């Protein structure tokens, strides 16, 4: 896998437990609808331990977070909340504690697999590599 394992562009392919999860984290219903089966394109640029993680939403809205493994960074959730988090690398997975959920991301079988857990609800999102 090497050091640049995450670099690439990934398009949303499918998810599990979306509705249950967004209820748990208190996403407003208008945002819930926007996010359902949303063809989000996730663009990752990895340079060693430095990452830029950008999500492109249909209609032109983007969210971008820049972070370095093991250092606290200013981040923004998909709901637009700003917070501080330290992203760690564990067994090839990126791991972060967001304000109301625990998030992991890994490259598995050429796909970007993201898992968010909140109060026992596990939300899984899979994206296929497009670039």
TrEMBL record:
Q: Which domain of life is it from?
A: Eukaryota
Subcellular location, record wording: Cytoplasm
The answer to keyword Cytoplasm applying to this record is yes
What do the Gene Ontology cellular component annotations say?
cytoplasm
Pfam families xrefs: Lipocalin_7
Domain (Cytosolic fatty-acid binding proteins) spans 8-25
Keyword terms, alphabetized: Cytoplasm, Lipid-binding, Transport
For this protein, the record's InterPro entries field holds: Calycin, Fatty_acid-bd, ILBP
GO molecular-function terms, A-Z: lipid binding
Please give the Gene3D superfamilies that the UniProt record associates with this protein. 2.40.128.20
The UniProt family comment states: Belongs to the calycin superfamily. Fatty-acid binding protein (FABP) family.
| Protein name from the UniProt record | Gastrotropin
- Species whose genome carries this gene: Calypte anna (Anna's hummingbird)
